[in-house]
Amino acid sequence: MAITLDLLREHDPAGPAFRRFGRDHCEPLLDAIGSPCRDAYIARRRHAAR
């Protein structure tokens, strides 16, 4: 995970200031930390939608 002080100042810690490696957008901290169960659920849902 990566973060800059400028992003923290702009969005505060609850905002989209955190970037997970391998993703192309910033997220709030709890989303950036991730949840393996939630990530698996979302992946299954996307696969089923195809």
Automatic annotation (TrEMBL):
It comes from the Bacteria. This is Uncharacterized protein. It comes from Streptomyces chartreusis NRRL 3882.
